[in-house]
Amino acid sequence: MSTNASARNGTWRNWGGTVASRPAREVTPASVEELAAAVRRAAEDGLTVKAVGSGHSFTSIAATDGVLIRPQLLTGIRDIDRDAMTVTVEAGTPLKRLNMALAREGLSLTNMGDIMEQTVSGATSTGTHGTGRESASIAAQIRGLELVTADGSVLTCSAKENPEVFAAARIGLGALGVVTAITFAVEPVFLLTAREEPMTFDEVTGRFDELWAENEHFEFYWFPHTGSTNTKRNNRSAGPEKPVSPVSGWFEDEFLSNGVFQVAQWVGRAAPGTVPSIAQISSKALSARTYTDIPYKVFTSPRRVRFVEMEYAVPRAALVETLRELKTMVDRSDLRISFPVEVRTAPADDIALSTASGRDSAYIAVHMFKGTPYQAYFTAAERIFTAHEGRPHWGKVNTRDAEYLAGVYPRFGEFTALRDRLDPDRRFQNDYLRRVLGQ
Asked: What's the predicted TM-score (pTM) here?
């Protein structure tokens, strides 16, 4: 339970420690039929329903005082179709298990985020993404969905079957039903070569368009209070495999990125005045390296240092200006930011409430160490992001309401109309959905 959300004394808490709720009851269904029965029973008792994955969302998107559904028994691969190149997987399956199982079968997702502790349904329902020039979020790789709707019936959808549901439910926020299975497009496993190297803030922002265009997957981290960034370029490779050696992997990924970083966060939390000096050292700790491995070993990395996060998608063309404004704001403030700012991209997709819906997007994620006050920083950052028509990641801290979101999502009304049809009595409602989707 340590890596996931926990429940003690009937209280459910998320991974980041930002949300706690007390459900009236918890259900752990062992089949789709049991899940559907739990939804029907909740309706009879006048209770709302929420499914929760690993609790990696920082918002209260999964919180409920009604029936909490835990999908940990709904796991595993249902079907691999090598002709269609798809895999159908139960909703409670952790991404880590999916990635490892696919690798054993010689298959892989095309793109993924940098954490794989989440369940497939939790990750896709909130719009989890990695970085990519042409390849988009995990949800954009969905080819079919099965969900239990408010009346307890099981609905399947794809581009051909119930296409209007498919257009919205791939990133459904838990508002349209409880996802029970997902069919993903997969491809034969391939190799990626990762090239990580430090670069100044001015160089990476000055060359951003070129770096984005030249690499299949480009991302970078900027260390506040410094002019330093660490860049990462992932591109397909003919091989051979050259994984990170166990010793340097442990040193860089565990010791530096988790162990020393954790200690640095503790010091920074106890003595905020030391943060700029720590940032200077942190930004220089990771040296350049190149390695080649299968996708999930390159895209994902362990994250043991707990944090709170806000992330916004802005139009890709607005990224550099937005980021420079963020840096200016931090430089002029007396904020002490000990966590790097992460920058990634995604191509436009066709999902109604995707943060990349209908526009090429760039993501800016701001983090604070768990237990440090984050409100002042996040409020100032959010002001900058929203001035550029930013769209908040559904699973990360934000203060936006339905009125704002309707203005930055052209297809917002399409989603809420579908919700009215599938869940007229708001069986899947909670405070978070009331705020972001309206009544």
From this structure: 0.93
